[in-house]
Every structure is written in C-alpha cells, then in structure tokens.
Amino acid sequence: MGADTIDWRFSFDLPKRFEPHVPPVVTELLVAAGLVLLAVGTRLLIDLAFGDVVEFALVFPAVVGATLLAGWRAGALVVFIGQALAWYFLLPIKGSFQFATVGNGVSLILTTAAELLMLWFVAGYQGAMRRLVDVEGGRVVALQQRVEALDAQARMDEQLRRHETDFQQTRQNLVAIYDASADGLTLCRAIKDADGRVVDYQVLEVNKAHCELTGATRAQMLGSVVSQIAPPVRPQWFSSADRAIKTGQMQEFDVRSTATGRWLNIRVSRVSDDLFQQTFVDINERYALEEQRQHLLKEMNHRITNNLQMVASFLHLQAGSAPPGAKDQLQAAEGRVQVLANLHSLLAYTESESDIDAGAYIAQLCAQLEAMIDRPDDIKLDGACEPLHLPADKIVPIGFIICELVTNAAKYAFPDGAKGTIQVRLTPSGEGWALSIADNGRGLDLRPKDASVPPKRGGLGTRLVQTFVNQIGGTLVTTSQAGVQHVVTFVA
Description:
alpha+beta; Beta-Lactamase; 15 helices
C-alpha cells in the first residue's frame, strides 16, 4: 500500500492502472493519440495568434507527458506521429513530405534525434524512479510487516505475561492449599523393573502435614527413593502403587508410623504412567475409639458370660434337688444357657467381633457338656473340629444343635449302665461343612410305623434342633447303624 502511494507521485502508469479493464497497448495508443491531438490543437491556436513558429516545439512536452503517463512506447508513438505531422503540415513544402532545402531535412532528423534522446532520458529516469519506488515500497512494506510483527510480539508478550502472572498465582494458590492440607501429601515417581512392576519410587514433592505425620523431614524425603528413606519397606507400598498406576483405581491401606506411633490411612492415586500421589490421613483417633469400643465390648461379653454362668450354676443346683422329670428339663436348660455362656466367653477373648474360632468353641462346649453327664465313667464325649472361623449367627445355632443332640444321646443311647462314646465332629464336606454327632449306643428304630397310628410329635429338643438347622440353611440326616448318627450339612 505504501509502495503504491509513492509510485503515483512519479507516474500515473495508466496502462497498469486500467489493465484489469483495458489492454495496456490500447491505453498507450489512446494516451499517445490524445497528447498528439492536444499538441496539434495547441499549435493551431498559437498559429492563429502569432503565425508560424518553431515547427517541433510542442512535440517535446507531448513526448514527456506520454512517457510519464503511459511509458516509453506511448512516448515513442508521440515522437513518430508528431514528427510526421510536423513534417507534412509545417515544414516547407507544406502538405508534402518533400523538403524545400537540405536544412529542413537535417532539422527534422536532429529534432527527431533530440526527441528520442529526451525520450530515452525520461524513460530511464522513470525506470530509475520506479525501481526506487519499488525499493522504498519494499522497505515500507518490510517496515510495516516489522511493525505489525512487533505489535503481534508485544501482544503475545503481554498475553504471556498475563498467563505467567495467572500461572504463578495459581501455583501459589495450589502450594498454599497443598501446604495447608491437614492430610499428608506426596507426589512420587515409580521405579519399575523389566516386567513393568513398581519395585521402588522416588519422592518428588511433599507437604508439611506429611512431615508432621511421619516424622520425616522435607530434606530427607525430596529426591530420595523410599527404600533408602525407611528400610525395610513393606511390599504393600509397592503393590498398591503398581495397582493404582495400572488400573487407575485408588488403593488404600492402614499402617502405623514407627516414628510417631500414629495410625495412618494411605491412599494411592494414579497421576500418569509413572507418577502417583499418596495421601496420608490421620486415623489415630478412629483406631483409639475402635480399641476403646473393642475393650468395652469384651468387658460386656465378659460380664454376660459371668451372668450366664451364674444362671447355669443356679440351674445346676436346682437340678440336683429336683425330681427326675424336672431334673432332665433343668439340665437341658442348663446346657442351653451354657451354649450362650461359651459364646460370650469366646467373644471376650477373640480379636474379631464377627468371626469366632469354631474349634475352640466346640471343644469348650463339649468339655462342659461332658461335665454335666451323670455317668462320667460310662459315657465319654469326644469333640474335634477342623480349623474354621464362623460368624456368630451360625456358631450359636451350631452350639444349640450340639447341646441338644449330645444331651439326648447321653440320656437315651446307653441304658442300664452301658458304656460308650459320643463323638462331635465338624469337617469339610464338598463346598460346605458337615457337623456330625454320633454315638455307639443301642440305636433307634427308624422303620416306618403303622400308618393307622398317628405319629407322635417330637419333644422340645427335637423341634429346637430342626429350627436351628433351618436357621443356618442346613439339612439334617439321621441314621442308625451301630448307634445313631446325626449329620447336619451347611455352607459356611
């Protein structure tokens, strides 16, 4: 744009200006013809006023004007047309291309040469000015482009400064949040073996809370690998990081800090293929409350055990002086109370409040049931159980089943001073377990009875056994071969 402005100061360059609409040759012809006509018209006016004057005087300005307006070709046309008209109309002999004297021909030749020389100078000057215009225009364009580039760079720099300011402010806010967090935070880079498993990691960033919770200083942590910070490292730290990175799911576990003695919940979250974050949450108060609750629960179970033992003792004393029929009922009630007493006794000393050691429970129950048998020299009780932990909602019904069936076997399987053994077993069976109470006594008559005689309803103990079997979702099968065997199968 700047180049075009400078160019029009020196030449209108009409062919170029009208080129989209008129061919350049046509423009050059029109400009040459127009200036020749202007020169002729001006000459006629001068002749009317002053008479004959120099023949070729007006050709010179016409050549200059045509050259400046339309280029050297238009100027050359003016030269040849103008000289031809002057030769024909102005030189003696007028109206003819003949010369009156030799001097007229020489004058025409010299004038034409002078006009052509002037045309050469004007065209050369015009070309030089155009080249200068092009150079200056290029410089202007380059300068404008440079200015625009500098403006764009300035705007970009300003945007970068704003972004940098925003970034720094955001970073300061994040650092403030990071340091103000009550939870310990660390950013870590995983160190993997040839198989891609996390075998160690490097601590890249750590906040103040982490140092307070773990007892490690920031200088000790930053840039160090964890195997050097606190050896030996539990494999759980590495396996949790490995699962978090590979699955993208948060992993967590509880540990107790060896430095501070506080319980911490560790949460491991994936950041990238090699980075992960650890969040250390102080759960010491929760563990303290849990320990207190466990202590209160054990104390409560211990007191319940004492109370149930006291009730069982009252029933035992009462049975000692009761008539035979009532004695049996009191002893059965004593056994049932003893089942609950044994359960609470185990709850008072077990680490878990839900899963109970079935072997210990059955052994303790069988020992107490054996002590309740009236003929300890004749009847032996043998209890055994495979290693198994059961929830309380299953262990209590199992205890009642054992109590009812053992008591019933001790009462009816060995009459008239017969000796024998009652076995209690809890063993695996398929996908579940089998509880077996068997004796080697006189057995039962399990043959079908006369259909005309209505069956007798079982006693309370029989109904209780079936109820407890249903409660644990089991099935009861009773057989009698060299004694009686009751087998209860269930799924733990």
